[in-house]
Design goal:
The complex is a heterodimer of chains A (about 110) and B (about 120).
Chain A (H helix, E strand, L loop, with lengths): L2 E3 L4 E5 L4 E3 L2 E3 L4 E8 L5 E7 L5 E3 L5 E5 L4 E6 L8 E9 L6 E2 L3 E6 L1
Parallel strand pairs in A: 2-12
Antiparallel strand pairs in A: 1-4, 3-9, 5-6, 5-10, 7-8, 8-9, 10-11, 10-12
Chain B lengths: L2 E5 L2 E4 L5 E8 L5 E7 L5 E9 L2 E4 L5 E7 L2 E6 L8 E8 L10 E2 L3 E5 L1
Parallel strand pairs in B: 2-11
Antiparallel strand pairs in B: 1-3, 3-8, 4-5, 4-9, 5-6, 7-8, 9-10, 9-11
Classes of the chains: A mainly beta (about 110), B mainly beta (about 120).
Chain lengths: ~110, ~120
């Protein structure tokens, strides 16, 4: 079985400051990794994913995440946040060949003007 | 392109009343379908998933049930709602052929309040 840990339930950050949202996972098999974003009262949208290849993956809106196999982590970072980044962020994993995603409990990112 | 719809968007129901939430996917065929519940501060809980018509897997024992009467239609039901059924219900789908895509695509959700 897999598990995902997002230790920070809430992260307040000043506008234009950098941010890192932490994600650690546990799995006995290889996994694919995802970050989803949820704006208030909306469904989840895929932010970025790691399937294979380069361990650093980027999104179109400036977020990036790095897969670290030895530390079983997939932390999400952005060098300068904006008010529009206020949302809840979920890390998720799925084993190769499995139909199900396992989600973390989410991190609520609040941007302070 | 593919789209996923959920209705209703919001619902207020009394305890003990029945429930029916509907999810439909357009623009693809034979998807895998999923129902999640999101309670405040508790992340996403997978309730049911389906790999085909009439094929339902239940993840959590509860008073909810799911059905898939058509290829791209997924229904979440209850005969008698409990207060603890309140939450945000999300439907999602994936391609059956994982070589096409590995992520799940989510609908807009239904906010259910049981009073």
């Amino acid at each position: 079985a897999q598990s995902v840990t997002q230790l920070d339930s809430q992260v307040p950050v000043f506008e234009e400051a950098p941010v890192e949202l932490r994600c650690n996972y546990s799995s006995s098999v290889s996994v694919y990794l995802f970050w989803y974003v949820q704006y208030p009262n909306q469904g989840l949208q895929l932010l970025l994913k790691y399937l294979s290849g380069s361990t650093l993956v980027e999104s179109i809106n400036g977020f990036e995440a790095e897969f670290n196999k030895s530390q079983t982590s997939f932390h999400l970072r952005k060098p300068s946040v904006h008010i529009s980044d206020t949302a809840e962020y979920f890390c998720a994993v799925t084993p190769f060949g499995n139909e199900k995603l396992t989600f973390g409990t989410g991190t609520r990112l609040t941007i302070i003007p | 392109s593919q789209t996923i719809h959920q209705w209703p968007a919001t619902l207020v129901q009394p305890v003990g009343s029945p429930l029916s939430l509907e999810c439909t996917v357009e623009g693809t065929s034979n998807p895998n379908l999923y129902w999640y519940r999101q309670a405040a501060g508790r992340g996403l809980q997978l309730l049911f998933y389906s790999v085909g018509i009439g094929q339902i897997s239940s993840e959590v024992p509860q008073n909810l049930s799911a059905s898939r009467p058509q290829d791209r239609q997924f229904i979440l039901s209850s005969k008698k709602l409990l207060l603890s059924d309140s939450g945000f219900y999300l439907c999602a789908w994936t391609f059956k052929d994982r070589g096409l895509s590995y992520e799940q695509y989510f609908g807009p959700g239904t906010r259910l309040t049981v009073t």
